[in-house]
Amino acid sequence: MNGTWTRAASSLLFGSAGDNALYYLQGSNASTTGVTVTVSSPSATYLQGTVADYSGIATSAALDQMAMAKGVSATMATGPTTAVGAGDLVFSALVTGGSPRSAIAGSSQGLPYTARASSGSGSAFEEDILAGAVGTQVGSAKLGASTDFYAVVATFRPLAAGASQPPTAPANVKATTVTPTQVGLSWTASTDSVPVTGYTITRNGTVLATTSATTFSDTTVAPSTNYSYTVTATNGSGQTSSPSTALAVTTPAGTPQCSVSTLVSAVSTANSTPGGGTVTLASGCVYTLTSANIAVDGGNGLPMITGRVTVQGNGATIARSTASGTAHFRIFDVAAGGSLLLNAASLSNSIADHGQQGGGAINNAGALSVTASTFANKGLPPQKWGQTPTPTASLRARPVVRCRTAAR
After folding, report:
1. Which has the closest alpha carbon to 167: 128, 228, 205, 214?
2. Whether pTM exceeds 0.90
3. pLDDT tens-digit profile of 338-355?
């Protein structure tokens, strides 16, 4: 967990083979989800042991002294360690080959151990004295029945006076802004005995950024996407807090990108695609054309259709701007040899130049097919195409489609 475990120098054989050892990890980060220890062996074997987690222990050179012993008895005693100073954490644990049924904590230097964990049969047991007395230390316990035991006692140095512990975890992480392209975060500052120097923001398990503030704006999100954020704090000693409680955020769907330049580029690409190309409009978009793309035939908002082009409208609108001063131009112009298939789109506000006859929306000299689409010019009623049209006086006077060859 949070680093590599250290195997203490002493160990004992368990029976004729096997192993009885103490491992420890100093300066580990805290965890909001507990401690998971993974133990492996090169071959199938019986694994038994205990684990404990302590705060207030030195983050380097933590292990002071230890002693190990084995025996067969109803009384476990490890034998003494080398003398240590007052205040060490005294930790003792045992495993047994048999089933003693129970284990009762003993004492060291006149101070009682506190039992911390035990298996139901008493075959794995641990105890501690949080602040030991001066002198040698011994692990001791009373077993419910005589059995073979393997035991350890270890002392760990306390955190030096004035030394810092890791900061507290950032609290109250919340989203202050959630848009399709941005998530704003804020949290409550961590506390420590030394200044907290910064915070690390992690998104979906990957470090995203660091900041000295208690706010952060993530501008690299995508619409309609799930994210999980955590924040950790770091102090001036380089110690890192446990992660905050994870914050789940789902960004909303994005606003369609109604880019005219993208539309123009897509039409040009479809024109040059062998066998024909398709331009797909974004649903809900209004592509507003502010000037003619070409001046041919009185002006056209989009490139001349010279290839075989299909426009899938998805209900989007291509409109000439109604802003004052906008020049007259139509939307499409199909050249001789060109082909346009327009489906489920609306064309609006287009006006052919007064010197041209008709073709206010589409001027066609090639092949044209229109389905489920609407043409609506300024001052004229909208006309649904893909059905049998009902001409009006206005439409006859200035038709929205001008065909110079038979339309397909």
Report:
1. 214
2. no
3. 999 999 999 999 887 655
Nearest of 189, 231, 227 to residue 209 by alpha carbon: 231
Cα–Cα dist 358/128, whole Å = 96
Q: How far is Cα 400 from Cα 392, in angstroms, rounded to an integer? A: 11
User: Quick check: 229 and 202 in contact, CB under 8 A?
Assistant: yes
Tokens matching residue 133: 């007395």
Write out the residue limits of the CATH 2.60.40.10 domain(s) in the chain: 171-250
Alpha carbon distance 387, 310 (integer Å): 19
Residue type, 12: L
| Dihedral sign from CA coordinates of 205, 209, 211, 216 | negative
CATH second-level architecture of 171-250?
A: Sandwich (2.60)
pLDDT digits (tens, 9 = 90+) for 354-397: 555 556 789 899 999 999 999 886 544 444 444 333 333 223 23
Q: Where exactly does CATH 2.60.120 map onto the chain?
A: 6-156
Confirm or reject CATH 2.60.40 for domain 6-156, answering yes or no: no
The tokens describing 400, both together, are 């929205």
Cα(306)–Cα(267) distance, integer angstroms: 10
Separation of first and last alpha carbons in the chain? 71
Rounded Cα distance between 54 and 50, Å, is 14
Residues in contact with 402: Cβ distance below 8 Å, sequence separation at least 6, in sequence order: 352, 356, 357, 358, 359, 360, 362, 363, 364
Cα–Cα distance for residue pair 303/266, rounded to 1 Å: 10
